[in-house]
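Team,

Forwarding the record for the chain on the shared tracking sheet. I've put the sequence and predicted structure together so nobody has to dig through attachments.
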Amino acid sequence: MRGLGPTSQRFYSQGLRLHYVDWGNPDAPPLLLVHGGNDHCRSWDWVAQRLCDRYHVMALDLRGHGDSDHAPGSHYPTHGFVLDLAQLIEQRRLAPVNILAHSWGGAVSLLYAGIYPENVGRLMVIEGWGPSPEVLKKHGDLAPHERLRQWVEGTRAVAHKRPPRYASIEDCIARMKAANGRLSDEQARHLTLHAAFQNEDGTWSWKYDPYVRVISPAWTPPAEIMSTWSRIDCPVLLVRGTESWASDPLADGKAACFRDVRVETLENAGHWVHHDRLDDVVDLAGDFFSHLI
């Protein structure tokens, strides 16, 4: 990485001490980067480095991720993440803020923009509009007691399973590359060094709280989510990779929820489009947010 890099900062939400990195340039328009599930704020480093000369770039570690606190009780409902985003924007007086988000961070950011449409200038989301309608229907068809039971049993399963420990950082890097075979050795090492920590016995573990993987029983029906999206009045750019599990928002009807939307599809990219097609994502972001300068 070139230059001095970002500085670590802290803020509080529901008593949790949360972390974000600030890439400087405070007089420029604010651009907030929000990572996906099981990820961390330094996943954005290559994007941030390309944009920080034009924008005041900040990247957030959501609760339970990176260098942010884990949630007491190991419960991670969507609205908790939305609150964290709202707290950072409010406490740092960032509104109207511009957001670039990935995966779960995109879902959180879309909800925030629907709740506070006046606080968001532009919103670019990479593969962050949630599961396909088929998957949503499958979970939505569960009765409330079934969803609660699923959460209880999922939480117990995590509690009874010791988080994986790796003998060396190289083993962690190999696991990172297994998750996304398109990563270069440099990318995989950088991502891993910010995603893992060394235990007292010398082994390595991931920083994210394993309980974030358990689906919360606080289920919001898809119709209510899309109704919230319909309140977003800023321009929205949705970006997807052709080799990802994510559904096409044009084909599944989700794009129709937004008043001002554009969809871009990139070939030879999986779920982490900003890693697989960095130059193209930076070009799209630069063009989309260029009106701010």
